Amino acid sequence: MVSSAANDATDVSLTEVAALLRGANDVLIQTHRNPDGDGIGAALALATGVRAVGNRATVVCPDRLPPYLLQMPGAHEVRHQLRQSTWDLVVAVDVSDPALLQPLPSADPKFFAERHSLNIDHHFSNLRYARFNYVDASAASATEIISALLMDHLGVQLTADIATNLLYGIVNDTHSFQNSNTSPQTLALSAQLVEAGADLSRIVYNLLLARSVESARLWAEVLPTLAFADDARVAFLTVSLEALERTGATLTDADGLVEFLRNIRGVDLAVLFKQTGPEEYRLSIRTSSAVDATVVAAAFGGGGHQRAAGGDARGDLSEIQGRLLEVYWTSRLAPSE
User: Fold this and answer.
1) Which of 257, 263, 306, 313 falls between 20 and 30 A from 3, CA-CA?
2) What is 6-22 written as a DSSP string?
3) Is pLDDT at 334 greater than 50 in this prediction?
4) Which residues partner with 29 through β-bridges?
């Protein structure tokens, strides 16, 4: 174990992670708000693994799961409130910053500091807020880490349900193997998961292709807000509260819009502004190799990966966009891809 003098946090190995899980009779597993295939897939797979070694596990996510995640094995068991405080071990998966657990009380870093706690993540920007931390920024997804933990360190048999949840995470965070974080190890593991019974084509359809009627209507409302800056190297879209109300859509129906922006040839910075309240916005950020998304996100109290990150902002939208452009211009690294 390696300790951090800053907050008495300790970096641990996967072998030590396995020992912590084996030694806990009752485990709370949490993942971030605005749930996605990686956070939920990692949490559900880990919960199954904890139960396989004879212990209890509860999965909590601050937000309700969108319809396309409800088809995941075990999705019905995900809770949205903390109902007790007697867990032997509190675990966060795919959570770089405890603020991403709002409005749960665990959003306060003291929640982890004052408890037997474990943080498992793959984000470079992870704050190492738990007593024990395992962070591997080279992993394509949190489920890639959980896969190694379950199979190599806990001796859990790979069932079709576990494989499905693990592959949901990989497909989510690699955008179906299209992102640069896809490694040979990621592909080899994915083949193993398919062999164990995970249905790759169905997972890709559920996560990336299927659209509700409300989503289609929302896209029609949002696309006219398209705006460019810096000779079309920066692209913005905005999801307003009014658009959500007119279409009957939710913020999850906007999934895919920021990837649409990123795929415009020549765009180095793509940002989707999702309005959550009066002058309140969630920022979804995607970049080319010319811009570090974590630098842009950090200016808005957020984090993530070098090519995909997020944050929150308050204020007038045009002023927020102006601040974002200032960060972009000072952090630009190289010519456009």
Assistant:
1) 306
2) TTS-EE--HHHHHHHHH
3) no
4) 59, 91
Closest CA to 310 of 333, 288, 282, 278: 282
Instruction: Report the SS3 class of residue 117.
Output: strand
Q: Give SS3 for 56.
A: strand
Order the strands of the 303-304 sheet from edge to edge. 227-229, 234-239, 269-277, 280-287, 308-314, 303-304
Is residue 129 within 8 Å of 113, Cβ to Cβ? yes
pLDDT tens digits for 235-276?
Answer: 999 999 999 999 999 998 998 999 999 999 999 999 999 999
Asked if 140 and 170 touch (Cβ cutoff 8 Å), the reply is: yes
pLDDT digits (tens, 9 = 90+) for 13-29: 999 999 999 999 999 99
Identify the helix (H) or strand (E) that includes residue 48.
helix 37-52
pTM: 0.86
Q: How many CB atoms lie within 10 A of CB 180?
A: 11
**Distant-in-sequence, close-in-space partners of 84: CB < 8 Å, separation ≥ 6:** none
Record the tokens describing residue 114, joined without a space: 């004052």
Q: How far apart are CA 145 and CA 167, in angstroms?
A: 12
Phi, psi of 21 (to 5 degrees): -70, -40
